[in-house]
Amino acid sequence: MTEWDIRKLRILRVLSEHGTVTATAEALLMTPSAVSQQLSNLAKQLGVPLLEAQGRRVRLTDAAHLVLRHAEAVFAQLERADAELTGYLRGDAGEVRVGAFSTAVPALVVPAVRLLRAGDRPGPFVRVREAEAAEAYELLSAGDVDLALSLAAHAPTPRDPRFTLRPLLADPLDVALPAGHRLAGTPGLCLADLSGEPWIFGGSGPWSEITTAACEAAGFVPEQAHSAAGWAAILAMVQAGMGIALIPRMASGERSEGVVMRVLEADRPRRHVVAAVRQGAEAGPAVARVLEAFTEVAASRSPLFS
User: Fold this and answer.
1) What is the pLDDT of residue 203?
2) Rounded to whole angstroms, how far apart are CA atoms 284 and 94?
3) Sequence-ordered strand ranges (E) for 162-290
4) Residue 92 neighbours by CB under 8 Å, 6+ apart
5) In 3D, which of 64, 123, 60 has the Cα closest to residue 93?
6) What's the CA gap between 107 and 169, in Å, rounded?
7) Does residue 80 have a pLDDT over 80?
8) Which residue, 50, 79, 276, 304, is most buried by CB atoms nearer than 10 A?
9) How many angstroms separate the CA atoms of 272 and 263, rounded?
10) What's the rounded Cα separation, in Å, for the pair 57 and 190?
């Protein structure tokens, strides 16, 4: 029977995610030569070529993809075993590390922690790490967090064997206008009415893509007047009359005087929030209980978003 080395298979998996030996070495805190040697040894153990030179890079062979397809099932089963063993030792009172994007922390994580603390039995200890929506999956894959709250627009495909995804809620996007804006009181305001306005959104990343996608669905490309990532900065510029912005309703705590928030009933733009765990980890009692708390909090917010 072929000898399968889990550690070397994990290195191959990281290479498939990062694309280069150098990036793989950085992710695993190894030297590039050590990565190359481990993968060369794995190829010898399996008796198939795993890498092919492609200029200055390498690419995985068909055999390597076949190996990884089966390895993912092994990783998921080991994750289940680890989760069940942790549950056997600690029940559902263990530690769960959660990676969450900024607006999810006050809107979902904090209420979920309160819910877990309010129970008759001690709940899991939740350790929070704020992370950008896309970064959360890197942390999850690397084992730095156990559960990630992210946006569906930046989630892996549901067929990605590394993760199990759970939809939580659809967060509406309202438009923020200066209080004295000519359209602040217009009935039935829609995004198309704002096509000629100066817009404020991030220069790149999820918020840039969400804003441009919502506007393009309404038939126009938004003119970016200013770039900012933090809601406080964006709303301060809106208040000063420097432009307008789409604001997620989950960020309602950041809203300030001098800004009018309008619901876009005709367009109903939304961003979809999901929870993700490594496949198999949902079997762990502590992770399952935290997932349940997030689902309950999200359901309690849903009437506000309808």
Assistant:
1) 67
2) 10
3) 163-178, 198-200, 223-226, 245-248, 259-262, 270-278
4) 121, 123, 124, 285, 286, 288, 289
5) 123
6) 12
7) no
8) 276
9) 17
10) 48
